[in-house]
Design a protein that fits this description.
41% of the residues lie in helices and 13% in strands. The chain has 16 helices and nine strands. A five-stranded antiparallel sheet has the order 8-5-7-6-9, with helices on both faces. It has a four-stranded mixed sheet with strand order 2-1-3-4. Helix 1 crosses helix 7, helix 1 packs antiparallel against helix 10 and helix 5 packs antiparallel against helix 6. GO terms for molecular function: translation elongation factor activity. This is Elongation factor 1-gamma.
Length: 438
């Protein structure tokens, strides 16, 4: 199983080949640096294309001169029977997870993380859809790993290797502590894998995201200056690579890699333009309740004697709605400051809701015995988080109940959350921590 792997540094697709080789003991020579290999030059040369007609990397040449392309095929070739699956059923399940990793996970990971690395501009609608898709994938994995250390069998297989490599950017760039908190089983599995000697030999230490990264405009301008765009329009371009299929409309073949932080989104072309935000509330009829006026009273006047009376005297039940929110994963909360950070992260990700929403989300209890609950006031009669994909990143971690503004018990509940004082259904008299969205 000896041979030569042609790639470029830090390619996550090459990494899965190299990790598999570490487990199997296959002798793999890596050619990734000039002058032996220069991306966009070497793989376009007649000699390279004679062996690998598509010019894609990673590409592998065996010791007897045979050639293999596509990273999953190369990883399979250098793997051993344990990594491939020792039974037909295990082999089928491993293939299932490999397809899941490339078809379901990778496109959304690329769409979400590539803008944070400056290698494509963010399309807000696409990023929102990608975030929702990632959450669904993580939920599936979390359920599958509830009673398992690894995905298939009792040892690492190509299923684990492929998924870890495809999730790597997610954990390093955007899955901050609040976002990854619901996926305890996935987090445990990911940490277990990346700390295996065979993984560490290839990946090194893997730092986990502490704050979700955002679009890096400076790096984008460095990678795609105007003259390079002009060259691309005239037919210039860089090397092809296995595509993160479906990850973005303009992300056809991802080998314009110029920086080591991530894979490229596409051959050079006009980068995807940021989609204009579509306000879901523009079609609603006017409301006599003015949110900004309420927020000013709440911020500047006494809450009990001024803000609460103002709310109920002016509330428009036809134009606005009240919601109770309860966190689903209280048993996973550890420290109160971490729970507060989780709330803060959610608030940051729904910045565009400030005009149409108000929230009081509180932490109750003591460390390791915490819970999170809150109330939200939204324009219209629908739960706001469901209206825009990018607003719905954290909301699935909560149960929401619509409140009746004419119900005295519901009013009492809202009042307690506004003033941060009360019985709170037996959790009072005061919360441990909390945050106001206004």
């Amino acid at each position: 199983m000896a041979g030569t792997l042609y790639t470029y540094p830090e390619s996550f697709r090459a990494n899965k080949v190299l990790i598999a080789a570490r487990y199997s003991g296959a002798a793999v020579k890596v050619v990734c640096d000039p002058p032996q290999f220069e991306l966009g030059v070497t793989n376009h040369s007649p000699e390279f294309l004679a062996k690998f007609p598509l010019g894609k990397v990673p590409a592998f040449e065996t010791s007897d001169g045979s050639t293999i392309t596509e990273s999953n095929a190369i990883a399979y070739y250098v793997a051993n029977s344990q990594l491939r699956g020792t039974t037909d059923l295990d082999a089928a399940r491993i293939l299932q997870y490999i397809n899941f990793a490339d078809s379901e996970v990778l496109p959304s990971v690329c769409t979400w993380t590539f803008p944070t690395l400056g290698i494509m501009q963010p399309n807000q609608q696409a990023v929102g859809q990608a975030q929702a898709a990632v959450k669904r994938c993580l939920e599936v994995l979390d359920s599958a790993l509830a009673t398992r250390t690894f995905l298939v069998g009792e040892r690492v297989t190509l299923a684990d290797i492929t998924l870890v490599c495809n999730l790597l950017l997610l954990y390093k760039q955007v899955l901050d502590p609040g976002l990854r908190a619901p996926y305890v089983n996935v987090n445990r599995w990911f940490a277990t894998c990346v700390n295996q000697p065979q993984f560490k030999a290839v990946l090194g230490d893997v730092p986990l995201c502490t704050k979700m990264a955002v679009f890096d405009a400076k790096k984008y301008n460095e990678l795609f200056p105007k003259e390079k765009k002009e060259k691309a329009k005239k037919g210039g371009g860089e090397a092809k690579e296995e595509s993160g299929k479906g990850s973005a409309k303009k992300q056809q073949k991802s080998d314009t890699h110029k920086k080591k932080e991530a894979e490229p989104p596409a051959e050079e072309d006009d980068a995807p333009k940021t989609a204009k935000f579509v306000d879901p509330y523009l079609s609603l009829p006017p409301s006599p309740f003015i949110m900004d006026a309420f927020k000013r009273v709440y911020s500047n006047e006494d809450i009990e004697t001024k803000a609460i009376p103002y709310l109920w005297e002016n509330f428009d039940k036809e134009g606005w709605s009240l919601w109770r929110a309860d966190y689903r994963y209280n048993n996973e909360l550890k420290m109160s400051f971490m729970a507060a950070n989780l709330i803060g992260g959610m608030f940051q990700r729904v910045e565009k809701l400030h005009k149409y929403g108000f929230g009081s989300v509180l932490v109750f209890g003591e460390d390791y015995k915490l819970s999170i609950s809150g109330i939200w006031l939204f324009r219209g009669q629908q739960l706001a988080f469901n209206l825009v994909d990018s607003w719905n990143v954290d909301a699935p971690s909560y149960d929401f109940t619509k409140l009746d503004p004419e119900n005295e018990e519901h009013r009492k509940m809202v009042n307690e959350f506004l003033v941060w004082k009360g019985d709170f259904e037996g959790r009072g008299p005061e919360p441990t921590d909390g945050k106001i969205f206004k």
